[in-house]
Write a structure and sequence with these properties.
about 120 residues; mainly beta; about 50% strand; globular
């Protein structure tokens, strides 16, 4: 079965960095759309970044130039490098996948989710 396990969250001051990881299993990681979402307290979940099977990426406007999504197919691991963090970046970060979809990853509803990892940015 599909499993996604995130790690790497923590507490940092504004301007700092965090690197999130998501280890995937139970499906063909290398040929599936992957994404990072986040949810702040009292707000709806929002998409942060997507990566397609060919490595092409899409970002939310709010994180462009600061966050980088990447993956290591040999390790079945998805990453999110978060730099120049702001208090507004605080939230629970989730990785997600939709097996069988390889491109235009922003189009799909994601059916498989990890348990999330908390990132807290203080001012």
């Amino acid at each position: 079965q599909v499993q996604l396990v995130e790690s790497g969250g923590g507490s940092v001051q504004a301007g700092g960095s965090l690197r999130l990881s998501c280890v995937a299993s139970g499906y063909s990681f290398s040929v599936s759309c992957m994404a990072w979402f986040r949810q702040a307290p009292g707000k709806e979940r929002e998409a942060v970044a997507y990566i397609a099977s060919d490595g092409s990426t899409t970002y939310a406007e709010s994180v462009k130039g600061r966050f980088t999504i990447s993956k290591d197919n040999a390790k079945n691991t998805l990453y999110l490098q978060m730099n120049s963090l702001k208090p507004d970046d605080t939230g629970m970060y989730y990785c997600a996948t939709q097996p069988g979809q390889t491109s235009h990853c922003w189009r799909y509803i994601y059916g498989f989710w990890g348990q999330g990892t908390q990132a807290t940015v203080s001012s």
